[in-house]
Automatic annotation (TrEMBL):
Domain of life: Bacteria
Organism name: candidate division WWE3 bacterium RIFCSPHIGHO2_01_FULL_35_17
Protein name: HicB-like antitoxin of toxin-antitoxin system domain-containing protein
Amino acid sequence: MGFRKSYILDYRVVVKPDKRLGNNKLCFVAYCPTLGVADDGDSVQEALANIRKTITFHMECLQKEGREIPIDKPEEELVTNTRFQFSFGPTIRFAT
């Protein structure tokens, strides 16, 4: 068996409240934009624990396929909001 080196990698994760399909029960979705993977949980803590497992699995798959491991570079990105005007018809419904 070959030598294995361990790395500590940091990835941004966005956690948002959501509702489960079918029962509308509150849940939380954790999304890692750099890797393009997501997972969920009944609490923020559970969603974070699940996304760590998903990230680990994703890394294992990338390594097995001989693909490069993406590195999160938040200093190269700009996260902002934008405002725009749009005319809606009389039956518009906004999500809550």
